[in-house]
Design goal:
alpha/beta; Rossmann fold; formyl-coa transferase, domain 3; 2 domains; 14 strands; elongated
């Protein structure tokens, strides 16, 4: 794995000098802020003093803290404030008045209830860009409903498709709804920064979890509009595109084969010894192959069933047919390509142990992302951040004694 440390990180990312205030917790807002932090932004994460972001205790724990936290909050600073108190709300207003971006993922209305809505913050700082991520958006009849990623995935139509026909729809094994919303939020921030560069104006970015997933649903809506077609679950296949599927091999593994390009299909059929299908004019184009997809899948499946996954993939690679196996995380951690691309980084934790974490995406040739500092302890940077605002040590101590600050 590639070593990663503060000393080894690029000195200046493309977002160096950008000041970001992160409010909210768990996944959607923090992932967006993490992406900005990876590329140089100074992200100040505001957490509740009593325990901080719940993600600190989600899933597997090492030395009292989730290892997920080490990825989600790397390169950030932490200040622990009780946002329900007027003093903490005033600190947020002061921070926002100096910031470029503020990210929040509370339920609509929460920020306004604390006196931290866009009308207030952007009056103090007209250049502020405010990213608001919520389940259903800031407007509409569902705006006040609580919304998590899994609900958004269902509402967007994704969950309906992720199943074998006739079986219970399954969820994607990660919080894909939250992450897609986060990435749409980052795109919105970068567009808003470009607009601000020309106009001097900040703006509000409203990202709904369900809309972010729906935006990735390809032809689902136009097919329904034009034909009344309601796409249903198709297991490992992709309806309307052939052949592309998962095929069982002799060793009970699966090979994923994407032979849906016209020339690729010919190479695939010749590779599996089916020149008759390769040369069949009725199968030269995708439309013809879709009509006979069961026949094609059966031919491929018969061929893979007589070979191991490795044998199948070696033959298909020789024939230049896109293919692959289903990776576990153990496969990923041992993969030479992941390592060569810098996607398997190693950080040193406070106890001296090492921890593997994902690398940085996307790859920029001149200003790549990098690891500048580990995820912070709760309130690790409270004093530093407040001093930058001009708060005295005596005032900091008084806030801490009253439980406003940790």
């Amino acid at each position: 794995m590639n070593a990663s440390s503060t000393e080894a990180a690029p000195p200046n990312g493309p977002l160096t000098g950008l000041k970001v205030i992160e409010l909210g917790q768990l996944i959607a807002g923090p992932f967006a802020a993490k992406t900005l932090a990876d590329f140089g932004a100074d992200v100040i994460k505001i957490e509740p003093p009593d325990g901080g972001d719940p993600l600190r205790q989600w899933r597997l724990i090492k030395d009292g803290t989730s290892v997920w936290w080490q990825v989600q909050s790397r390169n950030k600073r932490s200040i622990a404030l009780d946002l329900k108190t007027p003093e903490a709300q005033e600190i947020v207003r002061q921070l926002a008045s100096q910031a470029d971006v503020l990210i929040e993922n509370f339920r609509p209305g929460a920020m306004e209830g604390w006196g931290l809505g866009p009308e207030v913050l952007m009056a103090l700082n007209p250049r502020l860009i405010m990213l608001r991520i919520s389940g259903y958006g800031q407007t509409g009849p569902y705006r006040d409903r609580p919304g998590f990623g899994v609900v958004a995935e269902a509402m967007s139509g994704l969950r309906h498709l992720t199943a074998e026909p006739g079986r219970v729809p399954v969820r994607v094994g990660v919080s894909i709804g939250d992450t897609l919303a986060s990435l749409h939020g980052v795109i919105g921030i970068l567009m808003a920064l470009h607009h601000r560069h020309r106009s001097g104006q900040g703006q509000v970015i409203d990202v709904a979890l369900y809309e972010a997933v729906f935006n990735c649903m390809e032809s689902l809506l136009p097919e329904y509009s034009a034909f009344g077609a309601v796409r249903g679950p198709a297991g490992s296949a992709l309806p309307g595109i052939a052949p592309t599927n998962a095929y069982r091999c002799r060793d009970d593994g699966y090979a994923l084969v994407a032979g849906n390009g016209d020339s690729i299909f010919k190479r695939l059929m010749k590779c599996i010894g089916r020149a008759d299908l390769a040369d069949d004019p009725a199968l030269a184009k995708n439309a013809g192959r879709v009509e006979r997809v069961e026949e094609i899948d059966a031919a491929i499946g018969q061929w893979t069933a007589e070979r191991s996954v490795d044998e199948v993939l070696a033959a298909l690679a020789q024939a230049q047919v896109p293919s692959g196996k289903i990776y576990t995380i153990a496969d990923i951690a041992a993969d030479a390509h992941y390592a060569a691309r810098g996607m398997l980084e190693s950080i040193t934790l406070g106890d001296g142990s090492s921890l593997a974490v994902p690398g940085f995406v996307p790859k920029l040739s001149l200003t790549p992302g990098g690891h500048r500092r580990n995820a912070p302890a709760l309130g690790q940077d409270s004093d530093e951040v407040l001093r930058e605002l001009g708060v005295t040590d005596a005032q900091i101590q008084a806030m801490r004694e009253r439980g406003i600050l940790a």
